[in-house]
Amino acid sequence: MSAIQISHLSKSFTTQPVLNDVSLHIRHGEFVAVLGPSGCGKTTLLRTIAGFEPVNSGSITVGDRLFSSPDIHVAPEKRDLGIVFQNYALWPHMSVEENVAYSLKVAGMDRNERRTRTKDALALVGLADYATRRPSDLSGGQRQRVALARCLVTRPGVVLLDEPLANLDVHLRATMEEEFSRFHQHTGATLLYITHDQQEAMAIADRVVVMNEGKVMQFATPQTLYREPANEMVATFIDDGRVIPAKNIQRAESGIVLAEILGLRCRLRASPEQMAVASAQVSVHATGLRFADTGEQGIAARITRVIYRGGYRQIDVEPHSDPELRLSLHSPAEKTWQAGDNVTFMIADGWIIPQ
Ligand SMILES: Nc1ncnc2c1ncn2[C@@H]1O[C@H](COP(=O)(O)OP(=O)(O)OP(=O)(O)O)[C@@H](O)[C@H]1O
């Protein structure tokens, strides 16, 4: 079993705390992405799991093996983890198959077994026909796939990936996302995937860890992060979400409240435990706002900017009653709005951030 149990993990470099009481339970076979602003500690988390960094307090256990605690530090090569980095450092003088087979050779595996495993690994990443090529004769995406094959040939139960697609262009990234999903399905390995790219994380992971300043802000499915953020940081970080103040929050039914936002009474989603309170913050996304129908009482606002986004237009507005607030709506691309137009909008969907 390859579940990863991280308990109250803290790590400092000299005096600077970089990981602060991080606890995560990653299930066996789960695909987990770690997301957060630059410098929040993502790579340090991965490096402590890999064994490249000792920990100050807390523990890391994989399956039933305790890897790290203040008193115990299992060496990286004894952890049996697969690791794929952004700079995939292939041996330039070896062919693709030699690169992939190298670790098996070092481990003393016999030639036939090595051949079979290498062939299987290359087939899995779609490079069966490239076995004899040199890395210099491959594209960036193909090289990254060799790095992936090199990792999976050892059949690790846990694979750590640090921004493996960061050096690839947009189209290749999309192809490689599919590749990772396929790889995950075939191997059943537990995957921990660090990325800057939230669309990538949301598209491929079962669950996503959002980190900020060395702490776990929320560990949940992509849908939950988007619909039910645990705090303001997650609400504004995911998909350019916005936070609006609300007053006079009253329970309507389990999971639904009525609240006043910018002078308008709105129906909002909330945790079933949400109590009646005088004020709260509401998480909204552009998809949860809509223009008011004719005759419908909405929130009056001025359009500040119109951005053509291909299939739709992004309409940025500032409400008359709170011009500091910047909200965005989506509108069909053919609709012609202008900056300076006055509009009214409704809050069709919003979430009361738990206090
Ligand atoms: N070896 C080190 N010595 C001192 N400080 C370090 C060391 N490694 C990382 N840090 C600091 O720890 C903090 C977290 O770094 P880390 O690389 O884990 O962040 P990250 O979330 O992966 O960032 P990015 O997304 O920019 O790669 C940063 O402030 C960084 O400067």
From TrEMBL:
Sorted UniProt keywords: ATP-binding, Nucleotide-binding, Transport
PROSITE patterns tied to this protein: ABC_TRANSPORTER_1, ABC_TRANSPORTER_2
GO molecular function: ATP binding
This protein's name: ABC transporter ATP-binding protein
The organism's place on the tree of life at top rank: Bacteria
Matching Pfam families: ABC_tran (PF00005), TOBE_2 (PF08402)
UniProt xrefs under InterPro entries: AAA+_ATPase, ABC_SmlMolc_Importer, ABC_transporter-like_ATP-bd, ABC_transporter-like_CS, Transp-assoc_OB_typ2
Residues of the ABC transporter domain: 4-238
